[in-house]
Amino acid sequence: MKKQEKGHAPRYKASFGGVMFDVIKWIILILFVIVTLYPVLNTLAVSLNDGMDTIRGGIYLIPRKFTWQNYLTVLRKDSLKIATIVTVSRTVIGTVVQLFVTAMLAYIVSRKDFVFKKFLTILYVLTMYVNAGLIPGYLLIKNLGLLNSFWVYIIPGMVSAFNMIVIRTFMNGIPDSLAESAEVDGAGHMRIFIQIILPLCKPVLATVALFIAVGQWNSWFDAMLYNSFNENLTTLQYELMKLLSSVSSQSGNIDALKNTGSMVTPMSVRAATTIVTSIPIICLYPWLQRYFVAGLTIGGVKE
Amino acid sequence: MKTETSVISANKKKNQFIKDLRKQKTLVFMSIPFILYVLVFSYLPLTGWLMAFQKYRPGKGLLDQEWSGFFQFKLLFQDETFLRVLRNTLCMSLINLTLGFITAIGLAILLNEVKSMRGKKFVQTVSYLPHFLSWIIVCGIIVDVLSPETGIINQLLLKLNIINSPINFFAEAKYFWGIVGASNIWKETGWNSIIYLAAITSISPELYEAASIDGANRWHKIKHIVLPGIKPTVFILLIMNIGNVLNAGFEVQYLLGNGMIQKVSQTIDIYVLKYGISMNNFSLATAAGIFKSVISISLIVIANKAAKAAGEERLF
């Protein structure tokens, strides 16, 4: 028998039971892939189909009356232009700031003989379990003057205890001798952190950066709670949410829509917006798979 | 004599601590902003819990309010709406927890049985996709799929003659928990399977070989090698998730719920939002929030103790 490599599927002798197993296994997996992909592909088809035509039903995977109109409507909307700028800014600034700050905390608590190491770690880990709740949190943001401000997207979530643990676990695997020899050469902690430790942490930083960026890109609740009255601080997902509620309230009211005579409908605009907002992530995540799979496994390991 | 030595050793300890502190000056300076940050953003809001024991009126300071003891909590447990949202939260949470575990473990086991590396990679890549879509997008998709006019589910059910007229899934209460469960499965099964697949691949291949020699088939191996092999991982995740039983969610229920079905769709978080932000009843909303936190922490401690007693893997 050939020696198996770790992680490869076990081999079996061909038998009736074995063949049946394979058939059932593939049927389930193919169904799984179809169920996962169909709604997304359907949204794509709807986004490329004439809005009024879509309401007649029967659009599955291929557009019947092809048009770019839905996308043009989306791209012409001022609110979406602003939302795009805000969302891109919060994703870029938020990811850079959160990543750097969280990594710095991870560096501090990964110094083995640091006197406050345990205190600082517990202080942050507790925040994963104890949460003051919505109202006290809202009042804090209000009292700090962060209501109606872009910084409410960046500052309150600047350090995440979970991400800190993921990065710290990785840093603990870096040999101490590297930092020690730099210290002997007279390098301070800031220099060791930025010039030696950070470059070695690239894989885990990629993972955490993805977590943070996806979180920033997809968030809407903070925009609704803190900035809903300022149209200049709206985000893509919040705009999408408004479209969603307008569609569900009109779904029983198609005749009224037909009479308006416009070519685009809320449903088709929403489909186009959905595609536009998810394209960046859909293009990005397959390339980072290796990293987030590893990162998630680190995070799942107990302390 | 004894006390003298302990005083001396305490002094020594103190001196050592001061010495360390001096040596680690830079690290101490670097930690100060982090300590201040977490105190302000995570611990200072806890003082807001005082509101639950008051009749809070906005505009006055936290300490100038009228105190009311456990009045708000009594009110909470006499409120039919609260008891109902509590039931909704628990039921949806348990449905999500059970279905989530079964589907993720099932997918991981199936993926582990796939020999073609390319096939496996393809299924995995597809399975992660929904995790990266926001709940807004996912809820939009669910609304489309279940739409009475154009949704694929109604179309299929009609074609297969299972129903005679389209079902309006969001108008009837009996469908809602199932819809929430299905949305969660659709979004997270692939993502949750990552950790189980990692646990399965770390099982020593020698175990499979030994079982083959003993004549075990695949079902035997899954039952006697794979499932026991991932048991510690399952326990850890179970403990972590039990602590979250009252966090059944907010986004799906908030986005998919509507007036017709709010009796089954509202959760504690929505209740807090409604009473707190929309109706300005900060005290009652905070009391509900405290109740949730206390239950969550108790559950996680109990689950952890139970796992310890059963000799299983623990969180802390």
TrEMBL record, chain A:
> Where is the protein situated, by its record's location annotation?
Cell membrane
The main location class comes to membrane
Keyword RNA-binding assigned: no
> How does the protein's chain sit in the membrane according to the entry?
Multi-pass membrane protein
| Chain ranges of the ABC transmembrane type-1 domain | 84-288
Q: List UniProt keywords, sorted A-Z.
A: Cell membrane, Membrane, Transmembrane, Transmembrane helix, Transport
- Alphabetized CDD domains for the sequence: TM_PBP2
What GO terms describe the biological role, i.e. biological process, of this protein? transmembrane transport
Lineage, top-rank taxon, reads: Bacteria
Q: Which Gene Ontology cellular component terms are annotated?
A: plasma membrane
Q: Can the keyword Transmembrane be found in this entry's annotation? A: yes
Regarding protein family, the annotation reads: Belongs to the binding-protein-dependent transport system permease family.
Protein name per UniProt: Putative aldouronate transport system permease protein
The record lists the organism as Anaerosporobacter mobilis DSM 15930
Automatic annotation (TrEMBL), chain B:
Q: Which residues cross the membrane?
A: 27-46, 94-114
Bilayer topology reads: Multi-pass membrane protein
Question: Cellular component GO terms, alphabetically?
Answer: plasma membrane
Keyword vocabulary terms for this entry: Cell membrane, Membrane, Transmembrane, Transmembrane helix, Transport
Gene3D superfamilies xrefs? MetI-like
Residue stretches making up the ABC transmembrane type-1 domain: 86-303
Origin species: Anaerosporobacter mobilis DSM 15930
Q: What family does the entry list?
A: Belongs to the binding-protein-dependent transport system permease family.
One Pfam family, short name: BPD_transp_1
Major localisation: membrane
Q: Do you know which SUPFAM superfamilies this protein is assigned to?
A: MetI-like
Protein's UniProt name:
Putative aldouronate transport system permease protein
What subcellular compartments does it reside in? Cell membrane
What's an example GO BP annotation here?
transmembrane transport
